[in-house]
Amino acid sequence: ASRDSDYMTGQAVKIDGVVADVSSDGTLIINVGSKDGVKVGDTLAVNRKVREVKDPTSGKVLRSVVDAVGTLKITEVDEASAVGKFTGAAPAKVGDTVSNPK
Question: Which of 36, 38, 57, 96 has its CA 20 to 30 A from that of 10?
């Protein structure tokens, strides 16, 4: 099944992880794996949180403002982590978030 049909039927898996390790050759290790729905061949968006916007009354975080850093093409997956090749204008950093592309 294609990804588009997954979105149409609501079966898409929401990937929400963090970069755990960055190598100088552009290889990233992330803290989500097969148990989170990550598969070899997936392309994930890599973002960096710029700031949090908080409700001035309650102090709750209303939303996070993020900058797109690049993309990660997954090459290896185990249950709890995945490895991929990063592509972007600037290097990825540990703590950057990874998620489904918008």
Answer: 96
Contacts for 11 with CB less than 8 Å, ≥ 6 apart: none
Do 18 and 29 touch, CB atoms closer than 8 A?
A: no
Global pTM exceeds 0.85: no
Strands 82-88 and 27-30: antiparallel
CA distance 14 to 34: 12
pLDDT score of 73 more than 80: yes
Residue 76's nearest CA partner among 32, 25, 45 is 32
Three-state DSSP at 31 gives: coil
Euclidean distance between CA atoms 77 and 50, whole angstroms = 28
